Amino acid sequence: MGEIIVFTSGKGGVGKTTTIANIGAGLSQLDKKVVMLDTDMGLRNLDVVMGLEDRINYNLLDLLENRCRLNQALIKDKRFPNLFLIPASLKNVPLGQYERAFAILTEQLKSEFDYCLIDCPAGIDQGFHFATSVADRAIILITPHISAVKDASRVLHLLNGTKINKVELIINEYDEKLVRKKYMLSKNDIEELFDIPVLGTIPHDYKVIISQNKGIPVVTMHSKATRRFMYLSKQMITDCSCAEGAYAYDFS
Questions:
Q1: Under a CB-based contact definition with an 8 Å cutoff, are residues 94 and 14 in contact?
Q2: Termini Cα distance of the chain
Q3: Are 6 and 118 within 8 A, CB to CB?
Q4: I want to staple 207 with a disulfide (CB 3.0 to 4.6 A). Which of 5, 56, 168, 223 is the partner?
Q5: What is the pLDDT of residues 118-136, one digit of tens each?
Q6: Predicted TM-score (pTM) of this structure
Q7: Following CA atoms 89, 219, 173, 136 in sequence, which dihedral angle do they give, to the nearest 10 degrees?
Q8: What does the alpha-carbon distance between residue 117 and residue 4 come to, in Å, rounded to a whole number?
Q9: In 51-133, at which residue ranges do the beta strands (DSSP E only) sit?
Q10: Distances (CA, A) of 199 to 76, 96, 104, 167
Q11: Kind of pairing, strands 83-86 and 75-76?
Q12: Domain 3-239 coded CATH 3.40.50.620
């Protein structure tokens, strides 16, 4: 039986979609069968980040309204044999009426995939409640800025009222030099503030921007971010005792 993991954040622009795309690709390269769901109705971006926008015939709303079968909505990424995407609809609709259908769909996905990664809309409105309602595990994406930390605190409070029993943090745009100069919150500072584990950090890396513009995950490139995303992917599936950044994937 697979695991449903929702990636959420208190605000937009913290790198949530990019993180899902690269962890999904990383997990697939670790021989896990992965499906990524974009639940950001009206503002879908996961397909663009993955370079799959031209292959969309059906979307998540089509599935929930029984206008297509699951195999028709699934987009297989030819670069990663174990990776699939279900895009969001470009139509913004009230999601509360679809929660039961979404629960049925995700249970089916759990039986067919090792991991179901849900890209949650930013914020704490109905899209947040919809995406988190089916999750077994939640990962909060933050950047080490006071505003992002404040918003993420509200998200954590709301997650504590759900059935989700495992919540972790990923810190994006982390800069060790700024931390040493005490210009940026450290990983330990953030871990103490939230009292939940930090799964890992992602450094600022210009190759992430290049990869987004090309529609290819940065894990296919050699970069600082590649090492961290592959480390995070491995952390998702094992209790790794090695230090952060010690895992490097061999692309040869």
A1: no
A2: 31
A3: yes
A4: 223
A5: 999 887 788 899 999 999 9
A6: 0.90
A7: 60
A8: 6
A9: 75-76, 83-86, 115-119
A10: 28, 31, 29, 10
A11: antiparallel
A12: no
